[in-house]
Input
Amino acid sequence: MQHSDALIRTLRAVTDSSNVALVTPQATVLEAMLSGWEGQQRSRGLRPDTIAVRLRLIVRFQEFSGKMPWEWNAQDVEEFISGVDQRTKALSTMRHHHNAIKTFCAYLIDPNYDWVEICENQFGTHPVQVCLPWNTVAHKAQYEGSGKRRPLTFDEVETLFDTADAKVEELALSGKKGALAALRDSQLFKTAYAFGLRRNELAQLDLADLHYNTEAKQWGRYAALHVRWGKAAGGGAPRRRTVLLVPEFDWWVPGMRQWVEEAPDRFDPGNLDAIWVTERRTRISVGYLDRRFAELRAEAGLPKELTLHSLRHSYVTHLIEHGYADRFVQEQVGHQHSSTTSIYTSVSGDFKNRILAQALRKITDEEIER
Output
């Protein structure tokens, strides 16, 4: 959908003249509203995919209600979110839908635009805000996901990666196709864990994102990853960060070196700089990552509630257990707020017992000194 200045100028001209009427007023005004809102969001610097998702949601809401935006009321929103739209199950998803509708309505009733006047002139009514404090999801909790979600234990991580490596060996020894793809998958999941990456951050990695660290020359170009496609905030541009490899995960280097220096050329990627290349010479997709992780999880006999994102939670938890400072962990995973990092952390009972034992020894030593 392209922003139509000419269409909006026509509507303003119609509003200024009582002798002019639109042939299809409802469709024309709706199209201009959506086009104008798209242009306003582009002017704010929001990403095209964020804008597209919001526009689709507004169109779905309009089709569901059977009404035009100047006819919407609070009950329409409630029925759309809670009654029929089965895709809005998670609280966070419901809140995102509410925010999109609320933002669109705010644009329509803003006095800096002419939509109220245009609608009153054409339809004898005007848009109102239909997302109100008493019919929308409030953000009361830091974490709104399922209680079943959790990090993997050290043993589960080991089981997962052992299963992935065994698959590579099995296919290589049998002479069947797929050994190279299995090697790729094993290494990419290890990378997700060793650097605490999100799915898209992992999929978008290029060879140029492998970096040196002067404090860890022994690892060469595998001492850090430059993440250029971090999660955006408020619909803005992707955030960037550099994630350092820590000594506890240096086991990742030999496998990554083997993959980067020997394997990708066998896919004949051409000019594609991606680290994870498919047999079709394309970049690996986020959907594939989810599907392949689910298959590997099942082969390893691990619980279904563990997802690829659980490896990121595991990374945070295990860094804390290894004794790294909270601020360092926060910077590594790219969280703006420490509270976000804290909800990722679920330290083990053994770790808690070690901390308690240290505290008890300190108390005992102090009593002895007295």
Q: What stands out?
A: The chain has two domains: 5-123, 154-345.
